[in-house]
Amino acid sequence: MDFSLDTTSLIIVTIITAATPLLLAALGELVNEKSGVLNLGLEGMMVVGAVMAFLTVTSTGSATLAIIVAILSGMGMALIFSVLTLSLQSNQVATGLALTIFGLGLSSLIGINLVGMAYDGLPKLNIAFLSDLPFFGNVLFSHDILVYFSIVMVFVTYWFLNKTKYGLVLRAVGESHDAAHSIGYPVIKIRYMAALYGGAMSGLAGAYLSLAYSPMWADNMTAGRGWIALALVVFAMWMPSRVLLGAYMFGGITILQLHGQGMGIDMPSEFLSMLPYLATIIVLVLISRQAQNNYAPACLGKPFHSIR
């Protein structure tokens, strides 16, 4: 295969687009888990965001409105999860799994008449003469707004969690909700807000899938990306910078199934398709024990019972 500059830049752009929904969803879940809430329903929130974004853009023609609707849809799904787990004290793991099943079914129902329809995709932000630069113009300056937003949010998330009072309070709630409650912080309210933020980011990740990555609608178009995003949080040891690294690494593994046979690799396509999920399992097996023991919030997944 000819590795010209054009070919290399095309591969890098494909990696970036494959990584963006993973990065968005994982950043939302990282903040969610930092507050002590474990939401396994990313897949469900993403797929509902995807179908609602595509339904909106095909009905109104407005990509901006579609993104807003996707964010609100993800928040709505997260609100259901929050009411069940934070207010009604249901098991977070079981509720998250149920949310994924519910989201997949709901998206299939909503999108039944959308199958086969197509969309032109989000417009690219071609930046003056920068987009015309050889190699770097295509790689760095010719993406849609959500790609740039996902990268900016890595730095915003780091700043929020480590440099602001509200971020430190959120982390305190995740490390010891009883201690945070004892000094007057509203644990449940903070966890509600973190969960809604995680839902918003998952809905946005879903919108990226149906509006930019594959501008169309198909049942179960998230194809397990929600689970990969969950694994990314563990892989990153709950650090935003490592989420960025992990998302692009998994994005690279994902596009192998697209470029592998074109490179002359004699390997069954089924094996190439399972590479991202195989890599997810291997990464979790290798690092999850150490990561959970040293970096996971101490109250992750534990219900909070307020003493009145």
TrEMBL record:
It is found in: Cell inner membrane. This is ABC transporter permease. The chain crosses the membrane at residues 12-30, 37-57, 63-84, 96-119, 139-161, 194-214, 226-250, 271-288. CDD domains: TM_PBP1_transp_TpRbsC_like (cd06580). Pfam families: BPD_transp_2. It is a multi-pass membrane protein. GO terms for molecular function: transmembrane transporter activity. GO terms for cellular component: plasma membrane.
